[in-house]
Write a structure and sequence with these properties.
This protein has 77 residues and is of the alpha+beta class. The chain has helices at residues 31-35, 40-51, and strands spanning 3-4, 26-30, 54-60, 67-73, 75-76. It has one domain (3-76). The structure holds zinc ion (2 copies). One zinc ion binds at residues 18, 20-21, 23, 61, 63-64, 66.
């Protein structure tokens, strides 16, 4: 068995609704894809977190533009 993030691997969507308008939040990819070049200290922290079975994802609302982050627990496949 392998521990993988279901969002990174397209196994399922985030299943998180926008707090502003209630639309389904769209997965914008891994946190590190966005903040990596600008925030090396944050990146290090989140890479460690990912190795511990969790993956931080950036989510955005396609309806109102709201942004959020979600900690996704990895699944065993
Ligand atoms: Zn992920
Ligand atoms: Zn929204």
């Amino acid at each position: 068995m392998e521990q993988v993030c279901p969002l990174c691997n397209g196994l399922r969507d985030a299943g998180i609704k926008c707090k502003n308008c209630g639309a389904a939040m769209a997965d914008g990819g891994m946190w590190s894809d966005y903040v990596g070049p600008y925030s090396p200290y944050e990146l290090t922290a989140h890479v460690k977190q990912e190795n511990g079975g969790q993956c931080t994802h950036y989510l955005h609302c396609p309806q109102c533009g709201n942004e959020a982050y979600a900690i996704i627990q990895s699944d065993f496949i």
